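Input record (one chain):
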Amino acid sequence: MTKPMPIDIGISDANRAAIAEGLSKLLADSYTLYLKTHNYHWNVTGPMFNTLHLMFETQYNELALAVDLIAERIRALGHPAPGSYKAYAALTEIPEEDDAPDAEEMIRRLVAGQETVVRTARSVFPAVEEARDEPSADLLTQRMQIHEKNAWMLRSLLGS
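The corresponding structure, as predicted from the sequence alone:
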């Protein structure tokens, strides 16, 4: 077996490790939010069923693509991407539930989840900026923009 080639992309090993650690938390939050959103898509009921069913589907499909981008960035930095429920449970800040909330509570929980992902993405920026890691900064900026918009749209369904 051949020895792996060293990674020489202008980011130190320590900085790549710190960024990958932060992105792993972002991946765990994103995957957990994906599962929650997909679950709510399947189980939503009530007068807003069609609106929420379609909105949740749009959001979980976007998250399914996002987790791949995040994992691939972790790999490009030379680190393994977490990929198990156990790893995600240890890394995520989004609580898992086993109850059956009504539609309004689903919306509230998804707003909280979207905002958690934004905070997690924002928390990785110091390491990314220190390393001048523009690809990771771009990924984080895109994720924050999407999740802030999703939180706003969900929150708008609740009225004032």
